[in-house]
Write a structure and sequence with these properties.
463 residues; Beta-lactamase; 2 domains; D-tyrosyl-trna(Tyr) Deacylase, Chain: A; elongated; alpha+beta; six-stranded mixed β-sheet
């Protein structure tokens, strides 16, 4: 009986498909192939990470594959490279792998690992409004959420951040419920300490839109239009607010007014009273999503805020120096050894130094620990996402064997390029790699050649 029903159902399905309009002509009924279309893929050898018949990559094979691309003069006189078997940790190629290089934005891998280790992938950052010192006063308290937006971003954006719009609406609702239609507004940035710019940072980083002054309260990463209003436009670089916290508070006051609660007098920087009652709050996306945002877009503001969250969680001062010390301490606790000299969380400081061996250790940690896995899955994919998207950055020109199978963090500063991540080789083996050069004649040429290095690894069996 069941067989008859199946036959009738299939026949009916075929009839329906044949009656579909022309625009659906590509919908085809299921059919049984006359021959076997594909053989089962060989299972990976757990000891080598390679398919059983292809064999594992060897040092000689990797060296042969990399020799043509690593000999290029575009890397300049200071080049460090390390390639390992991601599964076993076996070193397959090493050149100056233990020397310290300026990491640029590959530094963000270190920040991401430390943040996920300490806070966990489900952690969220809270921005809140609390009662102030006076009976008619409230305080907007910055919680260090670097993804906080002013208004609602496009629905297609991922992840969806918390917004001042929703915080103002919730705040107004609570105030109006108690008959309060007018308040004094202050804002609190006491969560962080120290200067807003890191050692080695140029003021031009602000004016060129690379980063904003680091503060626990800001919206849209401090980006503003020429008129000074916040703008959610990551691709523009654009202008940054001179005082992101003040800008955010002023915008919040405007939203409150639109929701029926007027703000009396100027918005002032204050410290919220101890034990103040929370009026309303909003939370960031989970940390796993924030880390992906940071790594894909190489977002400097997110990186610096996450480094400070590590400092806060580990009892260090929430400053550049405290954050750098906290990230370093967490990574050492994970067993990371080698040159790791940090002055910030984003890699914008030319004073930062990291060894290729350290970056490879971090990639392997992310691959082997579920808690840290968002680092690996959040890396840009060659040709498809983030700074490895075609045209997405100076690294976005790849279209070779690494297309879709290389995941890596990019980094570039003046005369500096770096690339660290993983590549699936043709034999099915996963390789971890780091390539760093900090005396390059031309960053674009060196970045293109580094992607060629990743392509060489992806394109070979290397055995």
């Amino acid at each position: 009986m069941i067989g008859v029903l199946c036959a009738v159902t299939i026949a009916a399905g075929v009839t329906v498909v044949e009656l579909l309009p022309g625009r659906l002509v590509l919908w085809r009924p299921a059919a049984i192939a006359a021959r076997r279309l594909a053989e089962a893929t060989p299972v990976l050898d757990p000891a080598t990470g390679a398919t059983g018949d292809a064999g594992a990559a060897t040092a000689a094979g990797v060296s042969q594959a990399l020799a043509p691309v690593l000999s290029s003069p575009v890397f300049g006189p200071s080049l460090g490279v390390l390639v390992t078997n991601l599964t076993t940790g076996q070193v397959l190629y090493s050149s100056n792998a233990n020397a310290g290089f300026t990491p640029a934005s590959t530094n963000k891998v270190a920040t991401a690992v430390a943040a996920l280790k300490v806070l966990g992938p489900a952690a969220r950052l809270t921005t809140k409004v609390v009662t102030g010192a006076g009976s008619d006063s409230i305080v907007l308290v910055g919680g260090g959420d670097p993804t906080l937006s002013a208004g609602h971003p496009p629905a297609a954006d991922y992840p969806q951040p918390a917004t001042l719009t929703e915080l103002a609406r919730a705040t107004a609702r609570a105030l109006l419920a108690h008959g309060e239609r007018s308040v004094q507004l202050g804002y609190d940035t006491s969560l962080y300490t120290g200067p807003g710019l890191a050692p080695g940072w140029s003021q031009s980083y602000i004016t060129t839109g690379n980063v904003s002054v680091i503060t626990p309260l800001e919206v849209d990463q401090g980006r503003v239009t020429s008129a000074g209003t916040p703008v959610d436009d990551e691709s523009s670089g654009g202008l940054r607010a001179a005082d992101p916290a003040q800008e955010a508070a002023n915008v919040f006051a405007g939203y409150l007014a639109a929701d029926g609660v007027s703000v009396q007098g100027a918005v002032q920087s204050v410290t919220a009273p101890a034990g103040a009652t929370t009026v309303a709050s909003v939370q960031s996306p989970p940390l796993a999503e924030v880390v992906q945002w940071m790594l894909e877009q190489s977002n400097n503001v997110i990186a610096e805020n996450l480094a400070r969250q590590v400092a806060i969680a580990t009892g260090q001062p929430a400053s550049f120096s405290g954050a750098a010390a906290a990230v370093t301490s967490v990574l050492r606790g994970l067993g990371v050894s080698g040159v790791l000299q940090l002055y910030d969380g984003s890699g914008l400081s030319p004073d930062d130094k990291i060894a290729p061996a350290v970056l490879v250790q971090l990639i392997r940690l992310a691959a082997t620990s579920p808690r840290l896995r968002p680092v690996l899955t959040g890396l840009p994919v060659e040709g498809f996402s983030g700074t490895l998207l075609t045209g997405g950055s100076v690294f976005g020109g790849g279209g070779g064997a690494g297309l879709g199978v290389v995941r890596a963090k990019t980094g570039n500063l003046s005369n500096v390029t770096a690339l660290a991540g993983s590549a699936y080789a043709q034999n099915g083996q996963v390789l971890a790699f780091a390539v760093m050069a900090d005396q390059v004649p031309n960053e674009t040429s060196a970045a293109t050649q580094m992607v060629d290095v990743a392509d060489a690894l992806a394109g070979c069996g290397c055995n």
